[in-house]
Amino acid sequence: MNDQIPAEGAHEHEHDHGALGEAEYAEFMELAAEEGFDLEEVEGAIEEAGHGPLPVVAVVGRPNVGKSTLVNRIIGRREAVVEDKPGVTRDRVTYEAEWAGRRFKVVDTGGWEQDVLGIDASVAAQSEYAIEAADAVIFVVDATVGVTDTDAAVVKLLRKAKKPVVLCANKVDGPSGEADALALWSLGIGEPHPVSSLHGRGTGDMLDAVLEALPDAPQQLFGGPGVGGPRRIALIGRPNVGKSSLLNKVAKEDRVVVNELAGTTRDPVDELINLGGVTWKFIDTAGIRKKVHLQSGADYYASLRTAAAVEKAEVAVILIDAADSISVQDQRIVTMAVEAGRAIVMAYNKWDTLDEERRYYLEREIETELGQVAWAPRVNVSARTGRHMEKLVPAIETALAGWETRVPTGRLNSFLGELVAAHPHPVRGGKQPRILFGTQAGTKPPRFVLFASGFIEAGYRRFIERRLREEFGFEGTPVHISVRVREKRSKKK
């Protein structure tokens, strides 16, 4: 997962050396000065590359108040599906956004069929999981309608969650609507921010308030050595792949009740399970089932619940039904986990039911459809019989080890020097950009920042990632590579 960082805009707050110690950082900055880089830009690049998990903002509210329109306004592009009725399926619910130089994630909790389970149940089903994983919440209310019973139900959820809340009084298209916004003080959750998400009016002031509410760094729920608490595992996958059965099998008892009606589970319970002599915390994502008349709502609900579970986890164990063809939904779930930067284990369920022909074709499907996670440990299991369950823990431990791997700067630069000498970047337009030096700015997942003499093409960055994996492992983890290009004017300094 790579991106070119623009060569400007170092952060103003206190500098974070990422994974570098003080002595290593000083040596690195000396090298940067010798190569003609602006040191403030170098500090900014290391800080940005080493930011770790981004804070999460959940956008909640009843259907048709303009949540998806607001999400599109925040992220600056039309991605969230906007339709004038509840029940629209959204395959992706988490987006990355930036405001005033700060990056964060936005979770869209757009509505599905409101009348299926009643107001209280449907609001809880849509919102609880997103709120639980969020660092702050934007609560959207239609100022032209005023406070409804559903709005009041959301307020109860927000008070229970005790998360920072920014109240968005939407559909205030002009000064005449300001009085409608003021009436929302009655909700008792703070100042209403009058906004027109359709036209952009007032969104800047509201986002300023969101940044004030967000913590400088998201709350770390991760356990591990020296931190305390069990490591957190999200067992994810599309509906009906056997998540509940697998969780019950590893727990050696029926911990998860699966109801045929989607959305009936109101309070997910994280399961503490002993595997291989170690206690792990499995984050509950099981229990999603579809009925025809609930299909779009259940699909959306499953996506939201999966996104929230992944945000809370360290490791995503992605369950694939080996008896079925790998679906677009499987690929989207994999992409969600990769983009969230979690350690990943691929588990292929129902392996015991496959004949030789299906196994042959499945291997071809894995190569073509899931090539983006060829680096992830793989286990072939049967949730029904318990086949190969003993291989799950070693795979999780391998993925966590890769996720936490740190390469010293000296060793990394020796590797880069040999790599560039043996395989230089292709000449483009009479120029041949070079990787000058680099450092690992962070772990969980490993994040690298490389400094170059010119623009580095995406294909060459993918080549560098492949060679990094060959040299240092990184099994079971995404690897982020950012590139900072030296400006021409800096050469003369």
From TrEMBL:
Recorded hits in SUPFAM superfamilies, A to Z, give: P-loop containing nucleoside triphosphate hydrolases (SSF52540)
| Superkingdom assignment | Bacteria
Q: Membrane: present as a keyword of the record?
A: no
Q: Which Gene3D superfamilies does the UniProt entry name for this protein?
A: 3.30.300.20, P-loop containing nucleotide triphosphate hydrolases (3.40.50.300)
Which parts of the sequence bind GTP 1? 61-68, 108-112, 170-173
Subunit-level organization: Associates with the 50S ribosomal subunit.
Q: Which family does it belong to?
A: Belongs to the TRAFAC class TrmE-Era-EngA-EngB-Septin-like GTPase superfamily. EngA (Der) GTPase family.
Q: What does this protein do?
A: GTPase that plays an essential role in the late steps of ribosome biogenesis.
Q: What is this protein called?
A: GTPase Der
**Organism name:** Streptomyces polyasparticus
What is the taxonomic lineage of the source species?
Answer: Bacteria, Bacillati, Actinomycetota, Actinomycetes, Kitasatosporales
Gene label: der
